[in-house]
Amino acid sequence: MALFGSSKKNYSTITVKKRDVPDGLWMKCPSCGEVVYKEEVAANLEVCTKCNHHFTLPRQARIDLLSDPGTFEEWAGNIKSVDALGFTGMQSYVQKLEANQSKSGWDDAVTVGGCKLNGRDIGLGVMDFSFLGASMGSVVGERITYLIERCTKEKRPVLLACASGGARMYEGMLSLMQMAKTSAALARHAEAGLPYIPILTHPTMAGVMASFATLGDLIVAEPEALIGFAGARVIKETTQQDLPEGFQRSEFLQEHGLIDKVIPRSELREQMSLILDYLCDK
Amino acid sequence: MSAQFSLPFESPVHKLESKLKELEAFSQEQDIDVSHEINNMKDKIEQTRNNIYANLTAWQKVQVARHPNRPYTMDYIESMTTDFVEIHGDRIHRDDRAIVGGFAKIDGQKVMIIGSQKGRDTKSNVETNFGCAHPEGYRKALRMMKLADKFNVPIVTLIDTKGAYAGLESEERHIAEAIAVNLRECFNIKVPIICVIIGEGGSGGALGIGIGNRILIMEHAYYSVISPEGCAAILWKDRAFSDQAAEALKITGKDLLKLKLADEIIPEPQGGAHADLQKASENLKLAILKNLEELNTMSAEEILQDRYNKFRVMGEFEGSVE
């Protein structure tokens, strides 16, 4: 760094730029590189107004998108993650949880509940990657299992917006077993003849993919979402293979016949409602 | 099996063993009777080994579980069963040799035995892909389970894998779906299922054949959501912390019993299963037969409910969902 000097004057041009583009109003789309107006993007369901790049849709906005106004009632909201292993790492699990809770205002990585979608009673779950990478701890597994079990009892279809980096390491094997628990509940939901549709959003990986995210009657995904089991870096390291263009993206999965349909966010609500019409109305 | 390979923490034993050799050579050369000293030395070796194996850390157990001489599924099938009829392939793509299985009899009792298989040399390691199954391996396992279910034969799975194979073809043939479908379908199987972690229980790849009414674990096996190395690389940013990660992840039989994720620890012979295959097999066989006997008294309905209840309560949190 000394080569370039340390005078703060060097950075004065940035301050001028900042005045031109007030912080928080505009953003640069990482996909097309265009500068877009944040409010416009938000109003467009967090989809780039120039190139249709799908940004992360915040949890509440996702719930609002997939439920009729005022109908969402949260279920299993009273459970809290605990540090069952007494995890001894660089940072404690409790610290990690508290940091994520205060940053996000949510208590854990998933919200589930009952609501109506175009007048139909459904169960809805929304996973939130911004909370600890939507990793699957006991609370995440329990809420999803409860959602499925209650919907089996109440004969509701289930929509589950998935996102996850995988297991929650801080909960060790308790985390892994949530894959089994949620899949068990889905076996019974399916046995009852009820529809379940996971909606894969960016990114949905690892343990979540190897359980409830791929157990749908239909599996749908948002455009360009990263979807897979092992991370691309791990695959490269273990196999030294060159990975093809678009590997593990929604469109790649659809081409390979692994998912049913890529649905742009602007059509998601209507498409889900229509598909449920086909699956529910006898 | 050759005894060439040794683990670093076994070095006190090896030092004593080389001293013993010297002593024996000396005795022969000089024609002096040192049988008393030799016996003392043998006792000391035995004691030292037992001490080491009784106090293995989590990371040391991982080393034992990966010992190249550790018995694999086919070793147990050969030593503990009779009339083995191997079954091949997923009927779609190929016969994945990382998961093997078929009908067998344990003390005359019919079972479908399915397990991970590793290799011992380059050729067999290529054939078994080092015990890491592709999607077709999991689909083959499910096919065998459904076959057993149809003809009312209880199922035993022996788990020993680093994990499902992470590769391009694996993803293209949908490894995630293959595992997920196994998880769900195993809750519809009406015959008893006993799962035993005999070596490495590597995350989702292990769980893919790990849904049962009983989950048993061999004394020096481990079962983990991520490899200690992987966890260390992510949470400590350095693989050198694998021993700490192994400790923190709570992956040993004792840990799993405490977390109510496993039912029973199967004792291993002195010096680990690789030291005495016959004894290890005997212990495994006894544990399987005992658990089968209990499960065989249950109706199909009870078996299904038992398996559901078992996994339903896994997880720890504060508060109640209702």
Explain what the structure shows.
The complex is a heterodimer of chains A (282) and B (322). With 282 residues, chain A is α/β, with parallel strands linked by helices. Chain A folds into 2 domains: 1-55, no CATH class; 56-280, 2-enoyl-CoA Hydratase, Chain A, domain 1 (Alpha-Beta Complex). Chain A is 37% helix and 18% strand. Chain A contains 10 helices and 11 strands. In chain A, the strands form 2 sheets. In chain A, strands 3, 5, 6, 7, 8, 9, 10 and 11 form an 8-stranded mixed sheet that branches. In chain A, a hairpin with a 6-residue loop joins strand 1 and strand 2 (35-37). Chain B is globular, with a radius of gyration of 21 Å. In chain B, strand 5, helix 9 and strand 6 form a beta-alpha-beta unit. Chain B contains 14 helices and 9 strands. In chain B, strands 1, 2, 3, 4, 5, 6, 7 and 8 form an 8-stranded mixed sheet that branches. Helix content of chain B is 48%, strand content 16%. Chain B has 2 domains: 9-55; 62-312, 2-enoyl-CoA Hydratase, Chain A, domain 1 (Alpha-Beta Complex), CATH 3.90.226.10. In chain B, 48% of the residues are buried. By secondary structure, chain B is α/β, with parallel strands linked by helices. In chain B, helix 1 (11-30) packs antiparallel against helix 2, helix 3 crosses helix 11 (242-249) and helix 4 crosses helix 13 (277-295). Chain B has helices at residues 11-30, 35-54, 58-65, 73-80, 122-128, 135-150, 168-172, 175-186, 203-207, 228-236, 242-249, 253-258, 277-295, 300-312, and strands at residues 82-86, 99-106, 109-116, 155-161, 193-202, 214-218, 222-224, 264-266, 317-318. The chains are: A alpha/beta (282), B alpha/beta (322). Chains A and B meet through strand 4, helix 5, helix 6, helix 7 and helix 8 of A and helix 7, helix 8, helix 9, helix 10 and helix 11 of B.
